[in-house]
Amino acid sequence: MSLREDIEILCKNAGAAAARLALADTEEKNRVLLRIAERLEAQSGAVIAANREDLEAADLNGVPKTMLDRLALSEQRIALMAQALRDLVGLDDPVGRKETWSRPSGLTISRVRVPLGVVAMIYEARPNVTVDSAALCLKTGNAVILRGGKEAIRTNRVLVDLMKDALEDCGFDPHGVELVESTERESAQILMTMRGFIDVLIPRGGKGLIQSVVENATVPVIETGAGNCHLYVDEAADLDMAVKIAVNAKCSRPSVCNAIETVVVHSGIAARFLPMLAEAMAQYEVELRGDAKTCVLIPTAKEATEEDYFTEYNDFILAVKVVGSISDAIAHINKYSTGHSEAIVTENPERAERFQRQVNSAAVYVNASTRFTDGGEFGFGAEIGISTQKLHVRGPMGLAALTTEKYLIRGEGSVR
Amino acid sequence: MSLREDIEILCKNAGAAAARLALADTEEKNRVLLRIAERLEAQSGAVIAANREDLEAADLNGVPKTMLDRLALSEQRIALMAQALRDLVGLDDPVGRKETWSRPSGLTISRVRVPLGVVAMIYEARPNVTVDSAALCLKTGNAVILRGGKEAIRTNRVLVDLMKDALEDCGFDPHGVELVESTERESAQILMTMRGFIDVLIPRGGKGLIQSVVENATVPVIETGAGNCHLYVDEAADLDMAVKIAVNAKCSRPSVCNAIETVVVHSGIAARFLPMLAEAMAQYEVELRGDAKTCVLIPTAKEATEEDYFTEYNDFILAVKVVGSISDAIAHINKYSTGHSEAIVTENPERAERFQRQVNSAAVYVNASTRFTDGGEFGFGAEIGISTQKLHVRGPMGLAALTTEKYLIRGEGSVR
Q: What is the mean pLDDT of residues B116-121?
């Protein structure tokens, strides 16, 4: 059997399981989540043993240490995964939310939230994503097809098996959670074209994965996680605040999508601000890359290329651009940004409002760090990713992002 | 200059106009709509003259008479277009709708509805779509790029010119409404790949257009209008009601997407119902195509192929399928439907509910005709199309479908 046929069978099985999951009430779905938590704790030994094999194989293959850290599971990390499942139980279930109205035609129309159906996820090393994502999909009555990275395949197999067992324990079809065993590039490509079987594909990964999905997918997609974020330091900024925010937004966790990659600086305060910025960033050994004006004011800065401004470094590197006006700042951001998160530091309320209105991104901050773009920080309780597209959902995606709506209409022999 | 370069310039100009339109308040946008209505009435002579040239060219090219009817504009049709513009003024503007909350971090977060940006439409002969679609986009603060059919190009040119003039009259950039002059297939293909320039593409047309968009588009798309709709006549149906609904759903306007293409009949009432159906359909000269059981009960019916059940006839042809249970009916519908609209006729409340829950379509009716799937009938006031996808918007699309959301966050030097 070909890989495509394998994956098609997987999709069909998931579709059949989805039909049943869509009918489950909140209590039934919560019971599955609790059961997964129990099994995860009871079988933590098997999970950790499989994870150790993954780690050994990855180490032999020369996988970098930062990636090994993300791949590694411990009793403590497993306890956190189980806690996340129990927290999810407490969240409101969007499925079944309903508005009803009547029309002069005599019809009664309800708009009700329903599951999407079959959700596919393509992601990389972190095995906690396997359980988190599946749990969010199950909570919203969806089946899920997981296609994780090669490095975590042994861990993922054990995690998916125990989730399948938990589904069966609760009287559901185990095909509600499926794992694509092949971690070759081809399996991801095939998933992207399973039109008619997959209701939404959520890629979580780097630029290459997102680009491949955009070019090849024929199934509906929610793009996530591309974060070329900016901080604009206005002429009217509190410069100490600007330094504090810049350091937080760049250095607290450079590898995540809501970290900044470029600081845009108004020329009126550049001579005062840039040396302050350089000094603060030097403490974190951040490499600065700037335009000509920046390089004059910060002698240690390297020259930035056009490509730098398009780059999501995910590292201790920061681009700097000096602009003559807030208009130029907004134009720079709207040109180079991926539409994720941007911030302005200013004490001027008109300019703050203008920045928020005209910057074309999912989250636009005034006097705060872009690092807050997160489902938990926004109060959504859970997050399946951060959307950088405008259709369906934008910014941090809570449970409702995994649902759609449906119209239920009743008449009494009504014709038009 | 190549066609691609031409279209890229058009897109850039529309993008610049969109930035200004996004900042317009409701009153300013309504003024543009009223001005278009005035200019439409004042210049109706020029519109009709251009339309006459289109009609003559189409007639020479052998365009069928039904299509000529859809292409033709008269003083009366123009008055209706102007009235639609004035009705649109009265509708609520979704842009600017806002929820605000505070977080323990000290942040104040607002979620606000904003325009999508640049909307592109690919559509066919009817020139009223040119004005309707542009008006809906302008009302929601979007710029629009129109790519109509060859048959209406002269009419569309005049309509777009007068809309551009109306924008200028009101102090807006005339590039807020753009027309793709080329009506070759290539121009549609290029539009589909204008990633970074077009925020959403809405194709309105037949299966071929939708298919081409699914395969080729790299810009975000809302699929519309594919309607392979079903009526299921349950064992517990009021058969007179079922006949009345079937006739309305098939014959009142067979060319539209919410007309039915197949009647699915429970075997328990087939022997009584099918002759009644055949008699009623004969009055409209509807050709019936059925499975083996149907052909026994309706001797005039032709044999249906698998392909028939996948076909949106848009014509006086109706497929019939006899099933042994409601489960089989639901399975048939979920297999062949395009997910638009389906109906059940039954007096049994459990089966009605089951049908509504398990049929996987945008609108699911009990004892009513599928012909009601329409923004006006649902009470939305206006409609840009009927979405058959699950992401972003499903079913009739009102003004809110042309908007997205954005998070505006304020802190006081907040870091995470």
A: 98
Whether pTM > 0.90 for this model: the answer is yes
Mutate to test the interface with B, among A391, A397, A402, A403 (most CBs of B within 10 A): A391
Nearest to B156 by CA among B186, B195, B125, B135: B125
d(CA B131, CA B21) in angstroms, rounded, equals 17
B369 interfaces chain A, CB cutoff of 8 Å:
yes
Q: In what order do the strands lie in the sheet with B317-323?
A: A98-102, A108-115, A403-414, B363-368, B341-345, B229-233, B260-266, B317-323, B287-290, B302-303
pLDDT of residue B211: 84
Q: How far apart are CA A132 and CA A375, in angstroms?
A: 13
CB pairs under 8 A between A and B: 193
Q: How far apart are CA A176 and CA A22, in angstroms?
A: 11
Torsion angle (degrees, nearest 10) of CA B175, B180, B181, B184 = 170
**Intervals of chain A under pLDDT 50:** none
- Asked if B406 is an interface residue toward chain A (Cβ–Cβ < 8 A), one would say yes
Mutate to test the interface with B, among A390, A402, A403, A410 (most CBs of B within 10 A): A390
Distance (Å, rounded) from C-alpha B402 to C-alpha B132?
13
pLDDT reading at B297 higher than 90: yes
Q: CA of A62, closest CA in chain B: separation in Å?
A: 33
- Per residue in A29-42, pLDDT (tens digit) is 999 999 999 999 99
* pLDDT, tens only, B308-318: 999 999 999 99
User: What value, to the nearest 5°, has the Cα angle with vertex A335 and ends A334 and A336?
Assistant: 100
| Identity of the amino acid at B227 | G
Listed by number, the residues of chain B in 64-103 with a beta carbon closer than 8 Å to a beta carbon of chain A are 101, 103
Tell whether the model's pLDDT for residue B78 goes beyond 90.
yes
For residue A329, give both structure tokens: 């700042």
The pLDDT, as a whole number, for residue B382 is 84
pLDDT of A219 reads 94
Rounded CA-CA distance B2/B12 in Å is 15
* Residue A315 contacts residue A289 (beta carbons within 8 Å): no
Measure CB to CB from residue A218 to each of B215, B249, B361 and give the nearest one. Answer: B215
Taking every pair of Cα atoms in chain A, the longest distance, rounded to a whole number of angstroms, is 80
Q: Is B241 in the A-facing interface, judged by CB distances under 8 Å?
A: yes
Q: How far apart, in Å, are the Cα atoms of B62 and each of B56, B66, B313?
A: 10, 12, 22
User: In terms of Cα–Cα distance, which of B201, B207, B209, B160 is closest to B180?
Assistant: B160
Which residues, including other chains, have CB under 8 Å from residue B328's CB and lie 6 or more apart?
Answer: none
Q: Is B358 in contact with A23 (Cβ distance < 8 A)?
A: yes
Which run of H or of E encompasses B368? strand B363-368
**ipTM at complex level:** 0.94
Strands B395-396 and B386-387: antiparallel
pLDDT of residue B65: 85
Tell me if residue B90 falls in helix, strand or coil: coil
Q: What confidence tier does B154 reach under pLDDT thresholds 50, 70, 90? A: very high
First to last CA, chain A: 51
- For chain B, the average pLDDT equals 96
What pLDDT is attached to residue A374? Answer: 95
Pick from B356, B390, B414: which is nearest to A368 by CB? B414
Report which of residues B209 and B75 the model is more confident about.
B75
Report the SS3 class of residue A266: strand
Local confidence band at B208 (pLDDT 50, 70, 90 cut-offs): confident
Residue among A66, A17, A312 at smallest CA distance from A178: A17
CA A124 vs CA A67, A128, A162, A177: distances in Å: 10, 11, 20, 18
Cα A160 to Cα A39: distance, rounded to the nearest angstrom:
11
DSSP B214: H
